[in-house]
Write a structure and sequence with these properties.
Number of domains: 2
CATH architecture of the largest domain: 3-Layer(aba) Sandwich
CATH class of the largest domain: Alpha Beta
Strand content: 5-15%
Structural class: alpha+beta
Helix content: 25-40%
CATH superfamily of the largest domain: Periplasmic binding protein-like II
Number of helices: 11
Length: 297
C-alpha cells in the first residue's frame, strides 16, 4: 500500500482487522455501512467472506485488466472480485517426533485417523482459512461426510486457537503434525525448528492441496471509485505477487506470467485442489452452524 501511495499520489486510509475477529469484523462493518459506504476497496487475505459480500450485492463490477489471465476459479465471472497470491493448506510435521518419513501424514484425513489419536492438531474452524477450508470440504464432499470428518478430527486431534498456535505446537514438539497455512509453516522452518512441510492429498485418486488466495474487490457505491480501480490494478500487478512471494509470508503466485517461485513451494510439482469457491460460499452458513456446534464449546 505504501508503494502504491508513492507511485500514484493517492492517499490510502487503511483499516485492519484483528487476530481475534479475523476478517469477520471488517465484513460486518462493510455490511453495516451498506447504505452509505465509507470503504472503497476490500483486500482480504482469504476468499470466503469476499464471496459473502458479493452475494449480499455489496461489491461493484470491475474487470481489472491485470486480472484477465487469472485462473477461472480465482476470479469472479461477473468481475466482482479477483484472487491473487495464495497460501497453501499444508501439514507441518515435527521431524523429531516422526523421524521416519514413511510415518509422516500424507492427507488431511490423517487428522481423523484413530491410529493417530493425539498426534495431530488443527485450528478451531470458526474463523480464517480453517473455516474457509471447512466450507470447501462441505461443498466438495457433502454435508454428512464432511460432518463425520470434523467429528472425527475433534475426537482425534488437538484443537488450537489458530493456525499460528498449531504451527508453534508442532515446532515445539507438543504435536507430531498439524494442519496450517504455508505462511505459518514458513515461520517455523525459518526459525530453525525441526519441521517439514507436507502438501497433502497428492495421490492420483486424491483431491490435491487447497490453495486459498488473497482477494480484492471494490465496494459498491464507495466514495472514490476511480482511486479504487487504481488500487485494484496495482494489487493485481505482477510486481505485487513477486513481492508477496519474496516476503515473510512466502505467498504463492497465481498469475501464470509470474515465474518467481515462492520458497514455500517444493521442487516437485504440486497438485492443486480444484475448488468451486462460489459453492463453498453457498455452504458457509450451514458449515458455520455445524462448526459452532462441534467446536465452539
Amino acid at each position: 500500500v505504501r508503494r502504491f501511495q508513492e507511485s500514484s499520489g493517492i492517499e490510502v486510509d487503511a483499516q485492519f482487522d484483528t487476530e481475534a475477529s479475523k476478517t469477520v469484523g471488517l465484513v460486518n462493518r462493510i455490511v453495516e455501512e451498506a447504505q452509505r459506504p465509507r470503504c472503497d476497496v476490500f483486500w482480504n487475505n482469504e476468499i470466503l467472506h469476499t464471496l459473502r459480500l458479493a452475494k449480499l450485492g455489496l461489491l461493484d463490477t470491475y474487470r481489472a485488466p491485470n486480472g484477465a489471465d487469472l485462473p477461472a476459479n480465482y476470479r469472479s465471472a461477473d468481475g466482482l472480485w479477483h484472487g491473487f497470491a495464495a497460501r497453501g493448506r499444508v501439514l507441518l510435521v515435527n521431524t523429531e517426533k516422526l523421524p521416519n518419513r514413511d510415518d509422516w501424514p500424507t492427507s488431511i484425513r490423517d487428522l481423523a485417523d484413530p491410529k493417530r489419536r493425539g498426534q495431530g492438531g488443527i485450528a478451531r474452524p470458526l474463523f480464517g482459512t480453517t473455516a474457509t477450508h471447512a466450507a470447501v470440504l462441505f461443498a466438495t464432499w457433502g454435508e454428512q461426510p464432511a460432518t463425520e470428518f470434523f467429528q472425527a478430527v475433534k475426537e482425534n486431534a488437538s484443537v488450537e486457537s489458530g493456525n499460528r498456535q498449531v504451527s508453534i505446537a508442532v515446532g515445539r514438539g507438543q504435536l507430531a503434525f498439524g494442519l496450517t497455512d504455508t505462511d505459518d509453516a514458513m515461520l517455523e522452518i525459518e526459525a530453525g525448528n525441526p519441521v517439514a512441510v507436507v502438501f497433502p492429498d497428492q495421490g492420483d485418486e486424491q483431491m490435491g492441496t487447497l490453495f486459498i488466495p488473497n482477494t480484492v474487490a471494490i465496494i459498491k457505491n464507495g466514495p472514490n471509485p476511480q482511486a479504487a480501480q487504481a488500487l485494484v490494478d496495482y494489487l493485481l500487478s505482477d510486481e505485487v505477487e513477486r513481492r508477496l512471494a519474496a516476503g515473510p509470508s512466502a505467498q504463492i503466485p497465481v498469475h501464470p506470467d509470474v515465474t518467481e517461485r515462492s520458497r514455500a513451494m517444493p521442487d516437485e510439482p504440486v497438485k492443486w485442489m480444484e475448488v468451486d469457491f462460489e459453492a463453498a460460499a453457498d455452504h458457509w452458513e450451514a458449515t458455520a452452524d455445524k462448526m459452532r456446534d462441534l467446536f465452539a464449546g
